[in-house]
Design a protein that fits this description.
CATH class: Alpha Beta
Organism: Hornefia porci
Number of strands: 8
Protein name: Patatin family protein
Strand content: 5-15%
CATH architecture: 3-Layer(aba) Sandwich
Order of helices and strands: EHEHHHHHEEHEEHEHHHEH
Pfam families: DUF6363, Patatin
CATH superfamily: Cytosolic phospholipase A2 catalytic domain
Helix content: 40-55%
GO molecular function, one term: hydrolase activity
Keywords: Hydrolase, Lipid degradation, Lipid metabolism
Number of domains: 1
């Protein structure tokens, strides 16, 4: 029975995800596969590379750098999160991503991106941690309007959260019968339709299908949450939800290192609290994820 972990996005709410995952790395909790969306992808990939503390380290170091994330970056480059800085300079020079461990770890890692032309989700397994994989990580986290579509093999892709924010059904469809779902909103949260949607659709006039799908995003997302909470309440043995107890109240472009640390520590506290349940859910050591202590950076 394959065990997976599903990682929701949420911009800097991802510091909560990073804290939980670092507890899992420290305690050698293993999964057969993981799938990340947006921040869940770009932060969650460190679970496969076994880089304890990397996410909080580089976010605190660079959160004030305009090239990392800023309106200035958006005006100058078309990307709120600077493409060259975040997906070239940072992983290969400033705080290197451990490509070797990523490749050697048998835990499979998938991301969700959204096809800008069709508005539909695209699920991609990333095995190598190379430049092409970095393009897919970037695509999964590229918010419409605030980012340019990422061109891969002639097609444009944007944030996976536009089409499948919590891809539990996909993971179940490819054989992951037991899934830990790591959310970044508290119990009872439901998304409200944004009043900016008409303006967003206008700015996305080149991608009408994506614009139409975004108008239904809140309803679709809330339906997924309804289903997950119903399954949790019914005691579904194939599902374990982890989420913060309260609103994290952190900005999408948070510049205060102390705020990043605060949310990261909430994640660590949550990970510690649920650790025993997660280990039991995964069947002791979990799947064949290969989280060998000797492979840590």
């Amino acid at each position: 029975m394959k065990t997976g972990i599903v990682l929701e996005g949420g911009a800097m709410r991802g510091m909560f995800t990073a804290g939980v995952l670092d507890i899992f790395i420290e305690n050698k909790v293993q999964f057969d596969g993981a799938i990340g969306v947006s921040a869940g992808a770009v932060f969650g990939c460190n679970l496969k590379s076994l880089q304890l503390g990397r996410v909080i380290r580089y976010n605190k170091r660079f959160c004030g750098n305009w090239r990392y994330c800023s309106l200035k970056s958006w005006r100058k480059t078309g990307d709120l999160y600077g493409a060259d800085f975040c997906y070239n300079q940072l992983p290969y020079r400033l705080d290197p991503f451990d490509v070797r461990t990523y490749r050697e770890n048998p835990m499979r890692f998938y991301v969700v991106a959204t096809d800008a032309e069709t508005g539909k989700p695209v699920y991609r397994e990333l095995e190598r941690g190379d430049g092409t994989d970095m393009d897919w990580f970037r695509a999964s986290a590229s918010m419409p309007v605030l980012s340019r579509p990422v061109m891969i093999e002639g097609r444009g892709y944007l944030d996976g959260g536009c089409s499948d924010s919590i891809p539990v059904k996909f993971f179940e469809s490819i054989g992951y019968q037991k899934n830990v779902v790591l959310l970044t909103q508290p119990p009872g949260y439901r998304k409200k339709k944004s009043p900016l949607l008409p303006a967003v659709r206008l700015m996305l006039h080149r991608y009408p299908a994506l614009g139409r799908d975004l108008t239904e995003r809140a309803e679709v997302y809330n339906a997924v949450l309804d289903n997950l909470e119903q399954r949790e309440k019914a005691g579904d043995p194939g599902l374990l939800l982890i989420r913060p107890s309260d609103e994290l109240n952190i900005g999408k472009m948070e510049k205060d290192p102390e705020e990043l640390e605060r949310v990261y520590q909430i994640g660590r506290e949550t990970g510690t609290r649920v650790l025993e349940r997660v280990v039991e859910f995964c069947g002791g050591a979990g799947g064949d994820g290969g989280n060998d202590e000797s492979k840590r950076r």
